[in-house]
Amino acid sequence: MSLNFQFAVISDLHITLPHTLWDGPNRLHLVEVSIPVFEEILARLAKLDLDFLLLPGDLTQHGESANHAWVADRLRQLPYPVYVIPGNHDVPTLHRDAQSTGFAEFPGFYREFGYAHTDRHYYTQEIHPGLRLIALNSNTFDADGNQVGVIDAAQMAWLVDILDRVQDEYVIVMIHHNVIEHMPGQMQDPLGKRYILQNASELLGHLRGAGVQIVLTGHLHIQNIAQQGDIYDITTGSLVSYPHPYRVMRFETDDLNRQTLHVASDRVEAVPDWESLLEHTRNLMNDRSAAYMLQLLTQEPWCLSKREAVKLLPHLREFWATFAAGDAKFDLPDLPEPLRGHFERFSSCQQWDNHAVLRLASPRKSTVHPILFAPPYSSPAR
Question: Which of 72, 107, 205, 221 has minimal CB crowding within 10 Å?
């Protein structure tokens, strides 16, 4: 089958109706603009010929019923199919409380967006002729009721069965947590590891064995494409934090049955009442990331004193915003070694985080096909 389709990805919407807004003086994202930025992106997508839209989690700020209802109602108005999964913010508690819905309630809000035939938090569906989406839930609760980023045993067994039964279909996987490291040492970093699936290696083993090559994630609020063998983890930054990005992707099959994924990204620079949105949220991230950087510098493996770390913060003020935008290049001569080497490793060697053309391996084979080219930044056609 000659498979050709175009779709968009918007991640970490954190939709927040005004009456559900709660004070978050240290958060790096501006949920106050969640609805106008979402509307701006939808207006742009209306000009494209999309086959479907994917939303890989954190649809709401904190699992509020009103926000889930608003998202579902807005998605019903779109002219193309939409498929969602829960993020950690969508199901923050196992049981309903005064603020958030309970974990079991999530599928009920999104019957028309993947959950029509299941009360489980994961599903599979043919979303285009010859194309199968496997939508996974990475939010689990441990024995103490704490939320953790894990695919539980029942879901993993279900996934293995689905992969074994897939025939003559191309498979795309969508999951909230990252499955491949998007920054150096993410699996070991005390702050970074919470964004990556705890049993990612097990999941990757199953996907690799089935020839799955495209995994779409969110959660980390950065623009980044990571590769492990034939598998690409394409994570999309948050709608409510700098640089307010979204992606449009085009899958093409040529006359020789070679398959290519074209990845293009755009960003929202302004919305009503926020004419300098990009500048504002970049400064917000620069200012509020200081606490994160201070924590990083004073814990293992660096273990700097607070006084030493504070002296270095001015040199790292723009670090996280630059990294979040994708395609970062870092030159930090004012940092002492080995800190300088560590932070400069966050540079994107391939410069493909926002725009890339990925040549995909033949299905169910394991030959590495590197990037063909990564053009400079340009907006997708509108």
Answer: 205
C-alpha closest to that of 228 among 197, 207, 249, 247: 207
Domain boundaries, the chain: 5-270+353-359, 278-344
The sign of the dihedral angle between the CA atoms of 194, 197, 199, 201 is: negative
Identify whether the C-beta of residue 60 lies closer than 8 Å to the C-beta of residue 85: no
Q: Which amino acid appears at position 36 of this protein?
A: P
In the block, tokens 């599903």 appear at 123
- The dihedral sign for the CA sequence 37, 39, 45, 51: positive
Compute φ and ψ for 346, nearest 5 degrees.
Answer: -75, -5
Residue 27 or residue 372, greater confidence: 27
Mean pLDDT of the region 31-55: 98
pLDDT at 86: 98
What separation in angstroms does the CA of 319 have from each of 257, 336, 347? 42, 16, 10
Q: Is the pLDDT of residue 379 over 50?
A: no
Name the strands in the sheet holding 224-228, side by side, starting at the edge strand that comes first in the sequence.
123-128, 131-135, 170-174, 214-217, 231-235, 224-228
CA-based torsion, 179, 180, 183, 189: positive or negative: positive
Q: In the structure, what pLDDT confidence band is assigned to residue 365 with cuts at 50, 70 and 90?
A: very low
Diameter over CA atoms, the chain: 62
Q: Left (φ > 0), alpha (ψ -120 to 50) or beta: where does 370 sit?
A: beta
Q: Tokens representing 239?
A: 């709608």
Q: Can you tell me whether residue 245 is helix, strand or coil? A: strand
37 vs 241: CA distance, rounded Å:
10
Token pair listed for 202? 């097990």
E strand intervals along 167-219:
170-174, 214-217
